[in-house]
Amino acid sequence: MDKVYLILKILITLIVVVLFVQNIRVVEVNFLAWSLSLPLAMLLVVVYVLGMVSGKSLMALVRRLRASRR
User: Fold this and answer.
1) Helices (H), 1-70
2) Which residues pair with 29 in a beta bridge?
3) What is the spatial distance between Cα 32 and Cα 62, in angstroms, rounded to a whole number?
4) What Pfam family is a match for this entry (predicted)?
């Protein structure tokens, strides 16, 4: 089973590397009054990390609410 996880980790890493290499062009991002230019791959990483942080925070809130109801 450890070999399956290792193969899966290597496959996911390769997919991420290919995604990063193929998306290096610079894009402009506008949010309200802010504007910045950055590589698309960097934008994808930032959005992914923000999604992880907000998802973890939301799950912690849901667990806390469930625990307080019991």
Assistant:
1) 2-22, 40-69
2) 36
3) 30
4) LapA_dom
Using the 8-state DSSP alphabet, how is residue 70 labeled? Answer: -
Token couple for 14: 């390769």
> What is the sign, positive or negative, of the torsion defined by CA atoms of 45, 48, 54, 56?
negative
Radius of gyration of the chain (CA): 18
CB 29 within 8 A of CB 38: yes
pTM across the whole model: 0.60
Evaluate whether 27 touches 43 at the Cβ level (below 8 Å). yes
Closest C-alpha among 48, 46, 54 to residue 29: 46
